[in-house]
Amino acid sequence: MAMFTSRKQEPATPTAEPPRAPSPDSNRAPSSTAQPGGLLSGGVSIKGSVKFRNALLIDGEVEGEIDSTGALTIGEHARIRGTIRAKSVIVRGTIDGNIFASERCELGAGCTLRGDIEAPRLVVDENATFLGSAKIATK
């Protein structure tokens, strides 16, 4: 009974990888901001403190302190009530509180900030609403 057949071993030839389907992210337009490492999506509400290291996109609600050594993006649907401390902050939503950015703060079109900003660099879109004061100082 011949369960195994004897075949000649063919030399291994490199095979081309099959083409990969594009990932969902590859269809998005490239953006000037780094992709977030984490996401707090719409419909999520947090009371308390939020701490993270690298990058975070918040599109939900946070009441409390946000503290990070990384980049924070506040999405269009986000509502933040509290103090933000991060390396860089991009605001597209609504913030009632102060922002302390160690590198950069950007207020995008349609955002609302009711509070003060302290950052070495500040970018404010002409369609942003900013009710507060700004201290622009290098360390």
What's a concise summary of this model?
The protein is mostly beta strands.
Spans of 5+ residues with little confidence (pLDDT < 50)?
13-34
Order of helices and strands: EEEEEEEEEEEEEEEE
What is the count of DSSP helices, taking H or I runs of 4+ residues?
A: 0
The biggest beta sheet is recorded as: 10 strands, parallel
Query: What is the gyration radius calculated from CA atoms?
Result: 24 Å
Strand content: 35-45%
What's the helical proportion of residues?
under 10%
Shape estimate: globular
**Tally of strands:** 16
Straight-line N-to-C gap:
83 Å
Look at the structure and give the mean pLDDT: 83
Total domain modules: 1
- What structural class do the secondary elements suggest? mainly beta
What does this molecule look like?
The structure is a single chain. The protein has 139 residues and is an all-beta fold. The protein has one domain (34-136). The chain is built from no helices and 16 strands. The chain has strands at 38-40, 45-47, 50-52, 55-58, 61-63, 66-68, 71-74, 79-81, 84-91, 94-96, 99-107, 112-114, 117-119, 122-124, 129-131, 134-136. The strands form two sheets. Strands 1, 3, 4, 6, 7, 9, 11, 13, 14 and 16 form a ten-stranded parallel β-sheet that branches. A six-stranded parallel β-sheet has the order 2-5-8-10-12-15, with no helix packed on it. The N and C termini lie far apart (83 Å).
Sum up the structure in keywords:
139 residues; six-stranded parallel β-sheet; globular
Topology (elements, then pairings):
Blueprint: E1 38-40, E2 45-47, E3 50-52, E4 55-58, E5 61-63, E6 66-68, E7 71-74, E8 79-81, E9 84-91, E10 94-96, E11 99-107, E12 112-114, E13 117-119, E14 122-124, E15 129-131, E16 134-136
Parallel strand pairs: 1-4, 2-5, 3-6, 4-7, 5-8, 6-9, 7-9, 8-10, 9-11, 10-12, 11-13, 11-14, 12-15, 13-16
